[in-house]
Amino acid sequence: MSGDQRIASAERALADAGVYGASVDVEGHEREIAAVRVPPSEWERMMGPEGVSIAQAVKAAGFRYVALDLAQSDEPSPA
Amino acid sequence: MVPQEKRDRLAAILRECESVAIGYSGGVDSVFLARVAVEVLGAGRVLAVTGKSDSVASWMEDTAREVARDFGIPWLEVETREMDDPRYAANPNNRCYFCKSELWGRLASVARERGMKTVLDGSNADDVGDHRPGAVAAAENAVRSPLLEAGLTKDEIRAWSHELGLPTWDQPAAPCLASRLPYGIAVTPRRLKQVETAELALRALGFRDFRVRHHGDVARLEVHPSEIGRVPGHRREIDAAVREAGFRRVLVDLQGYRRGALNEGLAASQLVQLGSFA
């Protein structure tokens, strides 16, 4: 599955879990990390037990790791 | 509670070894083993040896030195040169084999020079089943594992360490800094220093059980589930401190810290498990 397709699947998994306004891009030397950005209001939820099941759903899109970007959505993109 | 049978078994194994040079990292297991060895054999028959290299966090070295001083454990530090071995620096999935070959080779030399009969490591019963290519090097150098042989689990070692008053009794597991680099990303002093700097910053914020995984210019933090809830409250400080260590982007893994996370990409055939080789 190409990177673009994995991103769409991962964002769909997040929306299915009720996480709205999230975006995903790919990091890692093997492009194995789904880097997720969410609105600040979702932070506590993502860092709780529910975050683990959300991660599993995103991993199913083809990632080894699912991780939250510590930069806020309103901060500059890391590119 | 540690069964008396296991206590007796450990003492018997140590007596069988007569005199010992112990691979002593400053972690829970090796500190405990050195302390019990001094009790059973006497300080004159024990030497705790710490390998000093860029892959060992400075706070571990400090712990090793301080506990040895405070508990009367004869201690020696030797420089190891695993970083000079290109097979190690390339960071293959059996990287630990090359590191431990260097370490156990040095310890075997020290033991011979000092007249110590047996070289010991701190592997325990819970380590069975982990990916441990370094255990092959231990076997090649006739290193014994008394804690494993006595069947002591990590919880039992922690409980017994607490009884003995060892400050390491509740110390989180702390493998070498190279374990933060995914296989295939070359191990360099600069990358190890980045990891150490970032981890020191998180420790200064009160986090105890976590790893900073080095993915090139991205840091992926694994924080233990019991502590991950504190991350949002320290978001800006963590982000700034880890970037300061030289990372472009800081990510927090949603599954939190779990042992051997970087082995998740390995096939079963690539795993080397304690007890699975001759």
Overview of the structural elements:
The complex is a heterodimer of chains A (about 80) and B (about 280). Chain A has about 80 residues and is of the alpha+beta class. Chain A has one domain (about 5-70): GMP Synthetase, Chain A, domain 3, CATH 3.30.300. Chain A is built from 3 helices and 3 strands, in the order H-E-E-H-H-E. In chain A, strands 1-2-3 form a 3-stranded mixed beta sheet, with helices on one face. The radius of gyration of chain A is 12 Å and the shape is globular. Chain B is α/β, with parallel strands linked by helices. Chain B has 2 domains: about 5-165, Rossmann fold; about 190-255, Alpha-Beta Plaits (2-Layer Sandwich), CATH 3.30.70. The longest helix of chain B is centred in the middle third of the chain and has 20 residues, at about 95-115. The two termini of chain B are about 35 Å apart. The mean pLDDT of chain B is about 90. The interface of A and B includes residues 32, 49, 58 and 71 of A.
What is the CATH first-level class name of the largest domain in chain B? Answer: Alpha Beta
- Write out the strand line-up for the largest beta sheet of chain B, numbering strands in chain order: 3-2-1-4
Number of β-strand runs of chain A:
3
Helix count, DSSP H or I runs of 4 or more residues of chain A: 3
How far is it from the N-terminal to the C-terminal residue of chain B, by CA?
33 Å
Helix content of chain A: 25-40%
Which percent band covers the strand fraction of chain B? 5-15%
Mass-distribution shape of chain B: globular
Approximate shape of chain A: globular
- The rounded Rg of chain B comes to 19 Å
Structural class by secondary-structure content of chain B = alpha/beta
Number of domains of chain B: 2
